[in-house]
Amino acid sequence: MNRFRFRLASILRLREVHEDKKKREFGAALGKLNLENNELNQLKGSLQDHEIGMEKRSRGTVSVHQLRNNFNYARALDMKIGEQKKHVKAAADVVESRRVELAESSKKKKILEHLKDRDREEHNHAVEKEEQVVIDELTTQRYKNHRD
């Protein structure tokens, strides 16, 4: 009996390596998105803290110079938040494209795995047929020898 050997095994290995690469790229893109989201949340927290601090300081006497500085700082934070939102959007777009690439790579690998399974089933069926032929031959031989 010969062993099962998938004739496209090297291509399947290549597809598995490619899928692993796409998984790593997807993971890296997700990590980048998380970093960008964390940065955005920190900026929003800083702006909120600044606004709370301004509200507390405004209860007393505040000079025009301090008010202008506080306003300019809040505006600068707001601009940074706007820029960071663009970074988050870009990172989310990269994550989505990496997800699509990973899905496509996984689909290609699954097709080959399915083909391998089908070829294995055909091989096993052929082996069973061969074994049945041998068993039938042995049974016939035994019967003949027993009758003689």
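Second entry:
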Amino acid sequence: MLMPRKKTPELSVPTLDHGHFDLSGETSERGIVICFYRGLHCPICAGYLTEFERLTPEFAERGVTTLALSVDGEERTRAMADKISAKELRFGYDLDLKVAREWGLYISTSRGKTSIGIEEPALFSEPGLFMVTPEQTLYYGATQTMPFVRPHFSELVKALDFAIEKNYPARGEYDGEV
């Protein structure tokens, strides 16, 4: 299980248009928001990533970079980026399912074509949203077993403002006996 204030797993993937991404080499002032999404086959992901794209400049104003990532290959990832008219949001691809599991993501099996007529991969990860500090420790994390009811990026921006103003620490860090 990932623990707040503890080092996150490594994450190294190719990206569209931004070279290779390596979490250990990320140099943002306040960290990075990583959105693991299901893939091109998911219509809910397209809407969700549209909001992430729209708010990426607001994260940047606060010293936070962004990355959207799935198990999809380059071609399907490019199709998703084009679908949401991405200009600001970095897209990673070829997420290894073993790495997805290290991040605590749930893995699903294909059910064939989705409601938008796109074939699901044989195996893919369900959504996860994480904020990782510049020291590569977990600040915030949320994982889901379904594509529905995801954290809102606008709320994360507001929470980030509060955290910056109050120097609010990552919570949920206690791992002793209860």
